[in-house]
Design goal:
heterodimer; A: 221 residues; alpha+beta; 9-stranded mixed beta sheet; 11 strands; elongated; B: 619 residues; 6-stranded mixed beta sheet; 36% helix; globular; binds iron/sulfur cluster
Chain lengths: 221, 619
Amino acid sequence: MSKNVRLRFSVGEPGRFISHLDVLRLMSRAVRRAGLPIAYSQGFSPTPRLAFASSLPVGVTSAAEYVDLQLNTPVEWEQVKNRLNDVLPDGFRILAGAALPEKYPPLMSLITTARYQIKVLGEAPDLEKKTADLTASGQILASVKRKNKEEQVDVRGLIDSLAYDPLQRLIELQCASGVQANLRPMDLLPLLGLELRDVLIHRTDLLIKAGAGRLLTPFDV
Amino acid sequence: MKQELLRILPEVSKPARYTNQELHAVHKDWERTAVRMALAFPDTYEIGMGNLGFKILYHIINQRPDALAERVYMPWVDMQQKMKEQDLPLTALESGKPLADFDIVGFTLQYELSFSNIVKMLDLAGIPRLSAERGSSDPLVIAGGPCAYNPEPLADFLDCVVLGDGEEVINELLDLVKHCKEQGIGRQAALLKLAQIPGVYVPRFYEIKYTDQGTIKTILKTEDSAPDRIQKRVVADLDQAPFPDTMVVPYLQTVHDRVMVEVMRGCTRGCRFCQAGMIYRPVRERSVETVKKQALELLDKTGYEQVSLTSLSTGDYSKVERLVTELAAECRMRGVSVSLPSLRVDSFSVKLAEEIEKFKKTGLTFAPEAGTQRLRDVINKNVREEDLYEAVEAAFSSGWHLIKLYFMIGLPTETYEDLDGIAALARNVLEIGRRSMPTSGKRPTVNISVASFVPKPGTPFQWEAFNDQEVLLAKFSYLRKRLKHPGIKFNTHDVRTSYLEAVFSRGDRRLGRVLARAVDLGCQFDGWNEHFRYDLWMQAFRDACVDSEFYAYRRRGADEILPWEHLLSGVSKKFLWLERERAYQGITTDDCRFSGCTGCRVCQDLGVANRLQGGEQIE
Ligand code: SF4
């Protein structure tokens, strides 16, 4: 048993439609409903000690979101998981967990990489060629929103792999995700001749780059 | 959720507004439920979710095994566009069924500027706009809420209107609709039966005749069995009244996104401009035990981080100190806070606020309403300048740095001296802040919010004229010059919006044509600055040959028949007129909770009484 618990959770319908701030509020309320002995921050307005690994772009579903909980008294992670699943609304589900040591680095600072599956719904000619061309080129200019301004940015360095599987009609993407470097998968869509309404984006993994090209999950560190 | 809807959701703003899986939303078996009612809020999801009356009705209806209630809000304009492209009608959240499939569609009339949204929602739902055009397969379109005391501009659109506390009427109404449905009773016959329920007004059974001057000549019943006058319904004992044991917890942040518990209903302070202070009489308090029990139960079920103790003036609740102290102690243990939405202007209120906001001192709001003692006496706002200074001094010295003050301009008898009074108050409050706040840290700030006075039905000022728009603009710019001062911020309300509110609040049935025309021209979301189209509204008045100034600028005479003459809040017209006269004489009237009955007649005529938890019961 541990006072600190890491949980992996999924986001489906209609959870994908709300902002990161809404998710934070929703989790805090679920923790309170579950009656978990959550610790509160000191200071002017005490908030429950929940720390998220990353913020999921609005509209994207996920099977790999993570949140760290600090409790006042130790509780088995399985119990935390079950009690939360009893009270979470549709679209949120705790999938797995692990106990954390007394001291641990904030997860957000560790995450470097995400994997996405982008399901193509409508017609999508030449996607195999387009993805191949993109990965072959040395520079990929995407228009990216930064501080409410559209900017042309070279995102080639942010993409680890990009490929289209015509049988499953799936684009598989592995790219930078985190505080140092980040790519929103939707920013690639225009380069592939796609619009938001043509696809469903799903995050499958949130990973940490270790040495020698090794990738760890948040449960491995 | 419907597939077509799911497809368009990613393309609209705030899609979670239109999803139906919120925690504690009630999903009932459509086929097996006898009566189905849609609770329709004529504004966005975020605003509608903050309405407590809706939550109460949702709870009462869904408790019945034979009835279901679902929610529907006005879709934002981008969603309307998508619905149009896909040919989708307006649907209720829970079942996704079209509004037209319900037995009853109940709108809440919160403010006049949402009237256009009501008509628009009927359009989006494909329900015929006019009561006269609806047939046996169409839902019954009903309404309730504060604007029900003059629903006349909407009379042609509504099948019936409920006056007073909805929890008193709703079960009788559902029973009757169920009965009519089972017996196959036709629409007209059903409406006749509905008109027999006390508090239910069926506009089509009354005919209005006008004089050559345009005022009302007679209000005539067209059906003998309809009542001459319709009197509001009232919950006698709030402690016994049904209250939700759980609340829907939305996915996205909404207005009043917290637990709300109503500590009392009604207010007898007697401010002469205030409609709520007249129509919700008498004062009925819930016991401390009940409020605490409801608050804690709701907190456990929802997980909310805050509970708000609501009423028109929670500082007046007779056991407020005990309630706040005890509840705040319980809440602190759960990491939850308490909030008080409405504070009186005195140092006692600051002490209360201290109790619950030990740490987070953002801003405190007071409403002196007028700038001089003379004018405050006229409007019976019993706040003295000393009270205000004491309150803000207490606030500044215990750590608040932002004070918000609410005022109105255009009140009866107002002169420029009263405006100077507002400026003087603002500067004095700032000065007190500079004196009483520590010199290091944040500087004191005073926010002055000024709105235009709009005369409301059922109040002592229901006969008064709305100030000329030009005059109001001149007054605003006069104030702006005098309030140009570092540390003072000045906010105003749009004069043209207030003008439209003034027209509709005391309008009659002839405004129905204007409303229909305005919606045809594209008016909607009038309460939203970015959507308010004054030009289109003025065109609608011209097209319908209706003179808006007749409604806004005209002072009514004592013996004029008012459009809401037959709709009674229980406060007698005699009392209102007497209060008006006392206003002009600058004579104040006491709060009957403490002084004894001042004769408004609600208690006698409705067989109720002020019920205070302090034990006092004033007969
Ligand atoms: S009837 Fe008398 S006691 Fe009752 S609310 Fe009116 S003034 Fe107050």
